[in-house]
User: Which sequence fits this backbone?
């Protein structure tokens, strides 16, 4: 997916395939590289790694919303280490190289959508296979109060009919694996008994027995210790029974993972049975609400020939549809390109709703993903004299991104959108892609955008507009 773009009218505006950049360490090594990724690009990498094998497109969309919400909920989890999230199962597995067109389509179709409960993003936990019954969050994470993560039967997972799993190991191997994670076992481990079960029937606490000793250990800690030492295709969840025989301990169970929240196997079945991604999320997170804002927005859709406008105040914002169509016609005449079909404008009713939906700071006036443009309230932009210029600039970004070949520098795409929309071409210094994409420092972003606009304007003066436009396809010579 394309990197995040930041542009200017009178307010700073943003065009992007993702939201505010996240700092991600993909690999667990302390000395591994920390990279910046837009939220949407990160979500695609997570969906590809965690759920890329799902057959249902609707299940992929539900996973995209869950992964996005999880990232927003836990953003900054590793801030003391200098980054936001890791790319392992400690946070969420993320593999950018695994992203394909199906995953990209699911992420784009739900761009900006989060799960909300009482005005805040939820803890959108998920697991591979609940085995027919989801788990209560408090059973896994004591102290978590999340009514939307209560245990309930999952007939969809049951109908998917996953086979039971089996695993066995010598008792001394199990004891050694536990010791590597700092968990104590009897010196002569000979048996494992489930001492306490959760409401869903899963193992909650274990009694490790042998040599006249009995040691208690949490079932979740046991599974993680075994997984780290012997692989996670061993004890796959907490729905199991165990028996000891001939110095070995044999396990038979159902399900994979902790079982809290969305069950990927059940979600896939729901999608195959005709349920939408919203239906899937409503089933697995009862009481939570999917949306691009912390509260429901009563959108009205106004349609034009090549554009549509979504607004809560059609009488006040309706004229924007004609303005956007006029800007698109002017750009088509100037470039010789057909207007990209399906351009969608969304004008938010207040600044808080815009920020919740896009993750942008208040000084960013608009946010564009693909052919969807999110705008701050028109009244705010109009009061600053930035409404028409912002609209032209975002339409120009849609045009440029629809023509741009992969890998083109951010400064070139940003500067060309500024040139085509008639923005100022004054600036000096380096047109640095990193400075353009970041949103932590407004002054640095403004200077970089001015430099990009000036650089592209100089190229057009030297070579003419048609050759510069052709570089979108061929690359900058």
Assistant:
């Amino acid at each position: 997916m394309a990197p995040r773009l930041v542009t200017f009218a009178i307010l700073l505006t943003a065009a992007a395939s993702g939201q505010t950049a996240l700092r991600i360490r993909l690999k667990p090594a302390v000395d591994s590289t920390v990279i910046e990724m837009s939220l949407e690009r990160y979500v695609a990498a997570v969906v590809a790694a965690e759920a890329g094998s799902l057959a249902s497109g609707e299940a992929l969309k539900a996973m995209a919303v869950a992964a996005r919400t999880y990232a927003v909920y836990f953003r900054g989890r590793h801030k003391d280490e200098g980054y936001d999230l890791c790319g392992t199962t400690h946070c969420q597995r993320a593999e950018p190289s695994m992203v394909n067109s199906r995953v990209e389509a699911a992420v784009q179709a739900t761009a900006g959508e989060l799960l909300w409960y009482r005005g805040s993003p939820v803890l959108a936990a998920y697991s591979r296979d609940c085995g027919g019954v989801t788990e209560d969050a408090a059973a896994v994470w004591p102290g978590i109060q999340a009514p939307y993560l209560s245990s309930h039967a999952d007939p969809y997972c049951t109908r998917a009919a996953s086979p039971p799993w089996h695993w066995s190991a010598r008792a001394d191997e199990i004891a050694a694996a536990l010791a590597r994670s700092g968990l104590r076992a009897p010196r002569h481990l000979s048996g494992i008994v489930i001492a306490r079960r959760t409401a869903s029937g899963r193992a909650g606490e274990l009694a490790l027995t042998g040599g006249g000793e009995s040691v208690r250990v949490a079932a979740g800690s046991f599974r993680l210790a075994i997984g780290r030492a012997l692989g996670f295709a061993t004890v796959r969840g907490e729905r199991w029974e165990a028996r000891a025989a001939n110095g070995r301990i044999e396990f038979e169970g159902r399900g994979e993972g902790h079982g809290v929240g969305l069950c990927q196997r059940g979600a896939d079945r729901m999608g195959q049975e005709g349920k939408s991604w919203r239906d899937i999320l409503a089933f697995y997170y009862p009481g939570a609400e999917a949306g691009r804002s912390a509260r429901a927005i009563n959108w009205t859709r106004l349609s034009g020939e090549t554009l549509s406008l979504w607004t809560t105040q059609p009488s006040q914002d309706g004229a924007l549809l004609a303005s956007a169509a006029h800007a698109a016609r002017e750009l088509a005449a100037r470039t010789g390109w057909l207007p990209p079909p399906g351009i969608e404008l969304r004008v938010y009713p207040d600044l808080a709703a815009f920020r919740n939906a896009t993750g942008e700071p208040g000084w960013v006036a608009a946010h564009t993903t693909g052919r969807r443009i999110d705008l701050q309230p028109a009244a705010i932009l109009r009061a600053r004299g930035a409404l028409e210029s912002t609209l032209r600039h975002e339409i120009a970004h849609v045009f440029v991104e629809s023509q741009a070949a992969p890998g083109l520098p951010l400064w070139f795409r940003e500067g060309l959108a500024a040139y085509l929309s008639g923005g100022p071409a004054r600036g000096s210094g380096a047109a640095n892609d990193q400075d353009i994409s970041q949103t932590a420092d407004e002054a640095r972003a403004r200077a970089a955008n001015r430099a990009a606009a000036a650089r592209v304007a100089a190229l057009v003066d030297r070579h003419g507009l048609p050759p510069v436009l052709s570089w979108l396809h061929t690359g900058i010579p």
In short: The radius of gyration is 26 Å. The chain has a mean pLDDT of 89. The first strand starts at residue 5 and ends at 8.
